[in-house]
Amino acid sequence: MKSHFTFSKKQRNGIFLLLILIVLCQCVYFFISFQSSDIEVNQAELANFTKEIDSLKQVEIESRKPKIYPYNPNYITDFKGASLGMSNQEIDRLLAFRKQNKWINSTKQFQEVTKVSDSLLNAMAPFFKFPEWVLHPVRSSSWNSEKKYNNKPKTYAQKQDLNTATAQQLQKVNGVGKVLSDRIIKYRNKSVGGFIADIQLHDVYGLTPEVVENITNQFTVKTPKAVNRININISTVDDLVTIPHIDYDVAHNIIEQRILMEGFNSINQLKKVKDFPINKIKIIELYLQFEKEK
């Protein structure tokens, strides 16, 4: 035990020096403050700085949001409708309406067709972009007056040939302005020979049934385009898709139904074909014949 408590002179000096250092450190800790002095903050400048930071954050958040550009609601797809907040049922109503070859021409009509809520409509409506002819329809000078043009139905002999009519002549019809007359001429000139029959006017975008009736009261197809009619009972899919309003799906369905019925006898039998565009049946009939193989 004695060896543990017996120190040499150097050891005693070292222990004494260590005690002095410990005491000095304790004194420094108690008597010297290491805390920094209080910083004075200008609250007004701090508030302005905080406000500026918040505004910059808001600008950054807005810039990261997907941008919405003006669009025609008639061409809303499933993806775009979902991104705009429309439900599947609302999108389906719009697509079903457009499938009938009908067009939405106002914000009110869009809500009537899709049944969207007022809040969603208010968010979408500012970005609706309808064609210029819908927003500012051009009416001919005879729209409010019958003095320049007699709007009563004419006989076949009195009617002008729709395939030779000029845009200026068409503009004399109630409801036909420069835009629609140009559109009729453009549609007519898409194929050599022009119109096959008056019924094709229903394929011109923007012509309502009432306007079509007004036109056919004054014009008719007197020099129809020559058409090589397709025999539906021997036609192939590639033959059928050359007919307006028949796509590959409908063409396949026609051939399947033809096999089941052992051929078609009349245009009305095509109404039984799945997905057949019944509202365009009169136009499709212009390109068909119904002769069975002998």
From TrEMBL:
Transmembrane segments: none annotated. GO terms for biological process: protein secretion by the type II secretion system. GO terms for cellular component: type II protein secretion system complex. It comes from the Bacteria. Pfam families: HHH_3. This is DNA uptake protein ComE. It comes from Algibacter pectinivorans.
